[in-house]
Design brief:
With 330 residues, the protein is an alpha/beta fold. It has 14 helices and 5 strands. The chain is 58% helix and 8% strand. It has a 5-stranded mixed sheet with strand order 1-3-2-4-5, sandwiched between helices. α4 links the parallel β2 and β3 (113-118).
């Protein structure tokens, strides 16, 4: 499900982009479950009292700036999926897509919030998200960046993307918005069927059964080798499984003392990534690949590729690290 930027930028952006969603998913799911229980209690009380259901406690379409990003996007994404529309006044396709997104935000009545970011007025946000063309649409769920699409799309295609986003937000993070999407029940995700084996793997990951999650995702991939969601889940589960019992300070000290110790460099890279230091993790492994050979080099290279899976191929930091890896290999 991240989130991404370089270290010289604001802590607010770092919170949005470098949150280790694989670590935060369980906490987000727990908070969302508590929130849902409270909403259900309030709704039941209101119904018993003959009071009409409350409107969502947030605006459905908001203009976001670099100053308001932390509150309106990062913090809000722990309660409801936040869809980001990167646009500009001079952009023709933006004028086609933005009304569609705004209309769907109203239509879905609280299952997501639409955050509009003017790239000309907020160049740092545009840079941090690696925006190379507009319109560009991304989402943030529990602090994790989810790239959606670039360019103008039809309402039907956008609706399909939103349905999948809402489904993932609910099933992976336990985050659901306020009212109903078309065809859904109030407070719930769109009605879809999920592979039971994949659902079991997600459940194992959410409850911290990392060994069980790893095996469950492998079972899914044995039958469906191309299942991208299972590949991501497996990469996350294996990462969390590897760092169990590791002490951050001990590993980092060992890695600094012995740069040639490949095993400890792999451990340090895993801990860096889970701690949100994505570029540090990638840089450490690229450097390790560059100064090793044979099995040690292969181990560092393969671990780097595994961490790419966790972050996502479209993340700009992955693109940069792939180029750096190619340089040291060839």
């Amino acid at each position: 499900m991240q989130p991404r930027n370089s270290r010289q930028n604001s802590s607010a952006l770092r919170g949005a982009v470098d949150l280790a969603a694989v670590k935060a998913a369980g906490e987000a799911a727990q908070k969302a479950e508590q929130s849902r229980a409270e909403r259900a209690r309030q709704a039941a009380a209101a119904e018993a009292a003959g009071i009409a259901p409350a409107e969502p406690a947030y605006r459905l379409v908001i203009d976001v700036t670099e100053d308001t990003f932390e509150v309106e996007v990062v913090q809000r994404s722990t309660e409801v999926p936040v869809v980001i529309d990167f646009w500009a006044e001079w952009c023709g396709p933006c004028k086609q897509l933005s009304p569609i997104l705004e209309s769907l935000a109203e239509e879905y009545a609280g299952q997501f919030v639409l955050a509009k970011i003017d790239v000309d007025a907020n160049p740092m946000l545009s840079q941090q998200f690696g925006i190379q063309g507009i319109p560009a649409v991304m989402a943030v769920v529990a602090g994790q960046l989810v790239p959606l699409f670039q360019g103008a799309e039809s309402a039907a295609n956008v609706r399909k993307v939103l349905d999948q986003l809402i489904l993932v937000a609910e099933q992976r993070f336990g985050i659901a918005g306020g009212a109903a999407a078309p065809g859904g029940e109030p407070g719930g995700a769109p009605q879809r069927f999920e592979d039971p084996a994949l659902a079991a793997a997600h459940d194992a990951l959410d409850r911290g059964d990392l060994g069980g999650a790893v095996q469950a995702y492998k079972n899914v991939l044995a039958d469906q080798p191309g299942n991208t969601e299972a590949k991501l889940g497996l990469a996350q589960a294996e990462l969390l499984h590897r760092i169990e019992g590791l002490d951050l300070q001990t590993v980092r000290a060992a890695a600094a003392a012995d740069p040639k110790n490949v095993e400890v460099q792999l451990q340090a890279a895993d801990l860096d990534l889970v701690g949100g230091h994505v570029e540090d993790a990638f840089g450490r492994l690229v450097d390790t690949v560059g100064r090793t050979a044979g099995e040690d080099r292969d181990a560092a290279r393969l671990r780097l590729l595994e961490l790419f899976e966790v972050i996502g191929a479209e993340d700009p930091r992955v693109v940069v690290a792939r180029a750096a890896l190619a340089r040291v290999l060839f």
